[in-house]
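The passage that follows is intended for readers who have already worked through the single-chain material. We present the inputs for a multi-component assembly, then the predicted structure in tokenized form, and finally a short commentary. You are encouraged to pause after the input and sketch how you expect the pieces to fit together before reading on.
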Amino acid sequence: MPFGASAQQYMTREGHVRFFSTTPIEDIEAENHQTTALLQADGAFAFRVPVLGFRFEKALMEEHFNENYLESHTYPNGSFEGNIDGFTDALKDGESHDVLAKGVLSIHGIEQEREISSKVRWNGTGWDIESVFNVAPADHDINIPKVVRNKIAPTIEVTVQANLNPR
Amino acid sequence: MRTLNAFLFGCILITSAFHESAQAQSLLDGIEAAPLVITPVSATFKDTRIINAQSNETPGKNVLHFVIAHRFGQINEGAYALWGLDNASMRMAFDYGITDRLAVGVARSTFQKTYEANVKWRALRQNSDNSMPLSVTLYSVAMANGLRWSDPTRENYFSSRLSYVNQAIIAKKWGSKLSLALIPSFIHRNLVESLSDAHDQWTLGAGGRYKVTSRASINVEYHHALAGLPTDHVNSLSLGMDIETGGHVFQLHLTNSQGMFERAFLTENSGTWGDGAIYFGFNLSRVFDF
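Having made your guess, compare it with the prediction:
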């Protein structure tokens, strides 16, 4: 039984995911405030982000993102599923702790084993989680045509920020 | 031996089924996602045109959409004229998005040296949750024939050069691949060739696209003149393909319409598919952000 039914759970449906691609030619940024995240007292952790919920500065970027790159009709969600190493109630001291989330990152239907360094902080009632990590589109079979390769960075910076409340 | 193989194969199937169900188990199983913010459906068509006719799309706010289009000569001209490629008719257009729903444009075609001014408004937009099931875009274009007067000795008026088309593009996107549009158009000419010609005409058109890859689609388009056309003219039928390369959209097509502005391709086609009197052509668009 990997997930104890009795373990205390913390969650949100309004987690924030931002991604940022920078090249000398163009910066591309998108924000999503509809991420579902769930953390269990035993360290089990998961998040799910609806790809169609990303908002871009330019409508055409959003269209290309959904239609050409993430194919969001076929792969509606990005997700992470795993465990936070060494997560215990002892971390409930109000300080920010560096932890390692180990698990499977799934984007565009392609799963990758990842170890993602993150910060957790007990806010008195729940957990604040923050993480910044890189994703290479090529690792998730996201094909970027040659003509736009100088506009889209080979690694994209992803920031996850969520305040999880007791469930 | 065969029994053993079947047995092993069965074992593998069962094991992999177990593996699948173990993978499918997720901490988030049974937890519903927050409902998605309702947004207008994007990319009903890849470009602001289906083939010849307008699609429901407009350039986004502060986007300049530049289109170069060519229609070559008739394919049945044969090898001597490289199946029409020796002759090209050209249209150059600039469309600008004032808002995400309102665009204005100007264009010039070599065909009859025609100038155009147009305005396009996305009156209704289909929503992601289908609470608005259709998109309706209204398009209005004024066309000015720039040819020298055929008879300079008589009294000629500038207004005689003008014609107008008003149309509605009623479009719907089904899933991510299929989009269809119904396009009623009203055509008015200030000056007609002969007394028996009508100043006003109605056409009803239909167009569609089907995406074959994430960057390519097959498009078709047909317009039917409701009260018929003069005997030397036929209805417009076009078959094409959109290819998107990121920033550019290439539209390649075969059509029996040589003119690339509305009055011409809706009502003045002389090419016929049956005897190969059709034109190969392309629209090439590029967007610039301001």
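Commentary: The mean pLDDT of chain B is 90. The helical segments of chain B are 2-24, 262-267. How closely did your sketch match?
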